[in-house]
Design brief:
Length: about 80
């Protein structure tokens, strides 16, 4: 799930009623990462831990710019 989509859900959490079980399902999909089984030559959203960190930043800030991994220190991106 793209960070712009994550930011959209964060900005519209109340309207879309993203709470409780619905929030748990959303977080599972949005924050899971995609590195498991991916070939080393493919770039994705990174490890599940790193993906959760950046997706949560976009969700809480309600804007995709909050997860600017290009400006982050290397230790914050895997």
């Amino acid at each position: 799930m793209g960070k712009d989509t994550v930011a959209f859900f964060g900005a519209n959490q109340e309207t879309l009623q993203v709470y409780g079980e619905r929030l748990e399902d959303y977080e599972y999909q949005a924050f899971s990462g995609d590195d498991a089984g991916a070939p080393a030559t493919e770039r994705g959203y990174g490890s599940p831990k790193t993906n959760r960190t950046w997706a949560r930043a976009a969700f809480r800030a309600e804007r995709p710019g909050a997860c600017n991994t290009w400006a982050a220190p290397a230790k914050k991106v895997s």
